[in-house]
Amino acid sequence: MINNAITKVWSSWVDYDPPINVKVYLKTDYNYPRLAEYVIIVLVDGARPDIIDKVEDEGFGFLKKEGVLFSNAYGLSPTYSIPARAAISTGLPHEISGVTSNWYKKGVLNMPSMFSLVKSYGLKTGAIGDSSISMLFEDYLDTYIEIPETSGHMKKSTEEAVKIITSGELPNILWVGFADVDEVGHDHGALSSRYEEAIAEASQLIMKIIETLKMRRIDDKTVLVVLSDHGHLDQGGHGGDELEVRIPY
Ligand SMILES: [Zn+2]
User: What CATH number did the domain enclosing 97 receive?
Assistant: First the structure.
């Protein structure tokens, strides 16, 4: 009986159908001046800011010194990865995007997102990383390179990003996903030395992307956004409302 009720509550959340048709409410004909030729978004899955502060070198250190740090950002609840990708890309809460859990299976989001907006201007879009971004946005991606979530994921993602930048074929918006920090967080917890090492490696790889942009002399035409989707508990794990998982980097 109780199990039945729990299953019902669970599926009503996972299969939740948003009552609002966002397409009706959002216009897509914005006419703002373009501030940058290229935007690269690096999503370091599961990176927690206090641990990044401990590492502070290479890419993270460079961006803190040269860039803008948003220290008052909060992830939405539940703090899962796939709803966070939808929220980051559409600017909409889970209840409106309809992506309420990692068990989302309804396919491409038919609502304005940074990918659909960029495409509507005749510009190019691309993504490198795990399959969740292609599941949500594949109709709006000109280039998609899938990197399976095995070890060395962020290294492979960076290699592909460097290849694209060097080839001169950089899309106007490029999503680059790093999976390893989250995996290590789940296995060893946020206070482990393994987690710290994974963040340090992510930081080095971000620096590699920055150096490649400089080498191609497009660093002053590019906005590089580095963020995470949620943090990790001290002992590892996320999904709840605890502050250390709601404050992503
Ligand atoms: Zn995540």
Answer: 3.40.720.10
Q: Which domain holds residue 65?
A: 2-246
Q: Are strands 38-44 and 222-227 parallel, antiparallel or unpaired?
A: parallel
Q: What is the pLDDT along the chain (249 residues), one digit of tens a residue?
A: 677 888 887 777 788 888 777 775 566 667 778 889 999 999 999 999 999 999 867 899 999 899 999 888 888 989 999 999 999 999 999 988 999 999 998 899 988 899 998 998 899 999 999 889 999 999 999 999 999 888 899 999 999 999 999 999 999 999 999 999 999 999 999 999 999 999 999 999 999 999 999 999 999 999 999 999 999 999 999 988 888 888 777
Ligand 1 center to residue 45 CA distance, Å?
4
CA of 81 to the centre of ligand 1 (A): 3
How, if at all, do strands 125-129 and 173-178 pair? parallel
How many domains in the chain?
Answer: 1
> How far is Cα 7 from Cα 12, in angstroms, rounded to an integer?
8
**Distance between Cα 67 and ligand 1 center (Å):** 24
Look at the block and give the residue holding tokens 């994974």. Answer: 198
